[in-house]
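Hi R.,

Here's the input for the magnesium ion complex you asked about:
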Amino acid sequence: MPERTESESRKLLRRLRDSLAMTGGGQDRLDRITHLIADSMGTEVCSIYLFRDAETLELCATQGLNKQAVHKTRMKLGEGLVGRVARSNAPVNTADAPGEKGFRYMPETGEEIYSSFLGVPIQRVGEKLGVLVVQSREARSYSDDEIYALEVVAMVLAEMTELGVFTSDEEGMRALHRQPVMFRGSTGQEGAAEGHVWLHEPRVVVTNPVADDPLLEIERIRGAVGQLRVSIDDLLAAQSLDKDQVQVLEAYRMFANSRGWLRRMEEDIMRGLSAEAAVEKEQSAARARLEQVEDAYLRERLNDLDDLSNRLLRILTGQGKDTGAEMPPDPVLVARNIGPAELLDYGRRLKGVVLEEGSVGSHAAIVARALAIPLVIHAGRITSEALNGDHILVDGDQGIAHLRPEETVARAFRDKIAMQAEAQKRYASLRGLPATTKCGTTVALQMNAGLMADLPSLEGSGAEGVGLFRTELQFLVRNKMPRRAELAALYARVMDAAKGKRVAFRTLDIGSDKVLPYMKPQEEPNPAMGWRAIRVGLDKPGVLRMQVQALIRAANGRPLTLMFPFITELSEFQEARSMVLREIHRERSLGHVVPEPLEIGAMLETPSLAFAPRAFFELTDFVSIGGNDLKQFFFAADRENERVRRRYDTLNLSFLTFLQGIVARCAETGTPLSFCGEDAGRPVEALALAAIGMRGLSMRPASIGPVKALLRRVNLEEARGVIEAARAAGQESARPMLMEWLAQQPTD
Ligand code: PEP
Ligand code: MG
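And here is the predicted structure with magnesium ion in place:
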């Protein structure tokens, strides 16, 4: 790189910064900048286009084009050469702009006389802010050096935009991080909440993007990269890393030691950027590539580089998790993703959670569900947009987050929350009443739980007991295998809190999406159908046995209900049950009291068990349908896959017919039957399940009120008649006819 260009570039950046330090509004600053850049680069035109909204760019300042066009000329993303730069996140460099494919002539700008065009994106860590353009009459291509110089300038502009340097109250200026933005994601946990943003990992703020002394900045970046390398080596030296963690850290180490990465950042610094701005420039480039790449492996690596850049920024700025910000009293956690243990640490303080990643079955979602905190997942780029303390509305029902909402939206939202609160109050008045239908049938409503924190809901919700206690959460939120005594103490506390109400402890259901951090992960082509749940428990019985012992000790002579997940055939149940009986025998011979009575049940989560020999139904003390899994296997539609998971209706008559078959088989042997998938908590689904004969439903606590209210106002016999009529009419789903019938029912 020629020394001359380097120092020119540095000079320009310094002039830019100095000019920004002068007084004046945002528009003045932009005007001065375009003038400076055109002057320094020897071009006739320099223009700055900024995003007006996510799709529209607006000419915000220009040197050389018609001033009247400022704030008038607009183009859509992808439109014209400017729009192309913005869409592709890459420079466009041409000697003959009017002859270029996609060129769009904007008569008000007077740009037709300029032949050459160079545009580069103004972006900050993947956030598109605008486009910086230079143009000349002379038909020439700009050199790589000039492109690079303009990119460096654009980086400084991006940092300054982020700092709000160009933001003023003047019409037309886009106020960053101030406008309302709606993020449409997916539902992780239903519910609505209003609060203020609390960023799990606040972004690092770069206050000075321009280097005063490049040599000093180079020293800083080398020092920081050195520190980064040491910290990765330390992590790698730590014991108890699993294969995946080692792989990620190895990738980190590779990047941290990559000469190219450091060299590029040093070049950026020699051009005039500060160390922090240089890191962000390379991070932005990586994010831009990430958008183009489809290959999953490469995407992972680019993600690694992104994480690494964040670490480096934290080292350089000393900013980290502790930015000194105070958590608002009504925090809504915003993060790219979060682990279950971290989420549990925040606990019920959180009003809501919004994640960029996550999945319905992820551990974080399970915890959010257990804590009954509204959760929106897949919420676009919310971590780039949200600032600590921003007003936010979380609509878990629709899977939407409104960031900095307009007052009208907030008002409508508050009405919705008020209505829900009103309904909850109505439900509270039903708390002591049974879910008895108009035809006199009583359905036992129970709740699902997984944490000690769930237990207070047992009283508040009016649930008769815990129909499903997911024990794996205790294992998932730790970083090492819990000990038997710890588990026994915990289970005992759960039983104490239940005050004699029945708690059905489901033994460890790991595998599939639930991978214990301290167990060697198995590479499986299709983990949901792989080595999971009882299959692991029978093949490697150590943990299951320990858990059963803990449950027996926790009961300490009290009643105990346990059930095995994912039983697929009779012999699995026989084997698991025998194991429990052996443990009981052993405990007794050790002089411990044993549970009395003891119930041992099976979860029916695969279609095969519905067709098991009669002996299975005779042997098991009860059957609990795990509707989430059963449905995914019945329809062969992955419950984790957004594309297909909502495709098939629970009220599909094939499925209802299948469930009726299970009801009939249980009836033959007098085996108690209940249903504990998510569908049990949806009022219309719950009604259909009750109508076909389920007499026990287990759901999240917040659903008990709505389900009970509906069941109490209908006649189940009639509802069953409607389902039969839908079947006779050859309908695919019973839903339309059931909804029509429901609409005719008196409201109270
Ligand atoms: C189910 O599959 O319906 C169930 C209740 O278990 P989980 O959701 O924990 O797999
Ligand atoms: Mg299941």
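One thing worth noting: Residues 565, 605, 626, 628-629 surround magnesium ion (ligand 2) (CB under 6 Å).

Cheers,
M.
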